[in-house]
Write a structure and sequence with these properties.
- About 25% of the residues lie in helices and about 15% in strands.
- By secondary structure, it is of the alpha/beta class.
- It has one domain: Alpha/Beta hydrolase fold, catalytic domain (Rossmann fold, 3-Layer(aba) Sandwich), CATH 3.40.50.
- The chain has a nine-stranded mixed beta sheet, sandwiched between helices.
- It is globular, with a radius of gyration of 19 Å.
Length: about 300
């Protein structure tokens, strides 16, 4: 497959700004330079269509910029769950963003523009991700994963940030998206990553067909050392144990990961750790169980903020 690693974006083409400003004063500086917030500031939404291969699918990007932000303030990209609400995903982090001073970006991959699990959870790598074939492998330029870093670069440029990397949080379906993002985009600019309670995982098993392993997909040709070196935390609520959740996939293959999100998180972490140790890779992943928590975005967001910005 021709791997089209390129990010084509035009910073000022046909974008619409919908901004709800909460701060009229200039930011309080923690360094010698402030962000240029002439285009966006405070809390709002900006519609992004500057990545040409997906320009026909404008992506609402919900953001929050704390009043004390400066050019060195870290940027967190949040991936929503199956509710497909970037606004809800952003709002769950606003209090922590203000307290710990990080900028929020929450792109919204709507059902209308990115329908079903194929286009979102599985990143549009294949036309039908559950039945991948060489002839239905999409060009990398139209993978949903390929829009993420152009969004980061666009926001970064718009607010004149000096950030070279970004952090990631994904919950539930967003956790699936984030887990596969680092799998399929090995040259990503992700700094630290937290995923919370995905319904299931694409394991790093090269003998198991995609989407449950990496056989028969582009990732089978990658080495996984770059993933294991990431500061990657997997979190799950101790009460996220409902095997009958309507959003939880069950079949003979995926059920080998476990019958609920709690057991599947443990399975994925343990299997990945064993792969890393077997091949003598540096392993920087961590696993955390959230006490007295079920499948709860806000509780997971609070835990993630402590991990990412202690």
């Amino acid at each position: 497959m021709k791997r089209a690693y390129f990010y084509v974006y035009i910073l000022l083409i046909s974008f619409t700004i919908a901004c709800v400003e909460k701060e009229d004063s200039k930011p309080t500086l923690n360094s010698s330079e402030a962000l240029d917030l002439s285009k966006i500031k405070g809390t709002g939404m900006i519609s992004f269509n500057g990545y040409l291969p997906l320009a026909n699918k404008p992506i609402p990007v919900y953001y929050h910029i704390p009043s004390q932000a400066n050019v060195n303030t870290p940027i967190l990209v949040v991936f929503h769950g199956n509710d497909r609400s970037g606004e809800y995903a952003r709002n769950g982090f606003i209090a922590n963003a203000n307290l710990k001073n990080f900028i929020l970006i929450a792109p919204e991959f709507s059902q209308a523009q990115f329908p079903g699990g194929d286009a979102y959870n599985l990143g549009n790598v294949f036309v039908d991700g559950d039945n991948p074939t060489p002839t239905t492998l999409n060009d990398e330029s139209i993978w949903t994963f390929s829009a993420v870093e152009p969004i980061f670069e666009f926001i970064k440029s718009t607010i004149k940030s000096k950030a070279l990397v970004y952090d990631v949080f994904g919950h539930s379906a967003g956790g699936q998206f984030a887990q596969r993002l680092i799998l399929f985009k090995p040259t990503n600019k992700i700094n630290n990553l937290v995923i919370s309670a995905p319904g299931w995982y694409t394991t790093l098993d090269k003998t198991l067909d995609f989407p449950y392993g990496t056989k028969s997909c582009p990732a089978v040709t990658y080495t996984y050392d770059y993933q294991f070196e990431k500061y990657f935390s997997i979190i799950v609520g101790e009460s996220d144990t409902d095997p009958n959740d309507s959003d939880l996939r069950h079949n003979d293959i995926v059920d080998k990961q476990g019958l609920n999100r709690y057991s599947r998180a443990q399975y994925f972490y343990s299997q990945s750790r064993d792969f890393a140790l077997k091949d003598q890779y540096t392993f920087n992943w961590k696993f955390q169980i959230l006490q007295n928590v079920g499948h709860d975005f806000n509780a997971a967001a609070n835990a993630a903020a402590l991990i990412l910005y202690p």
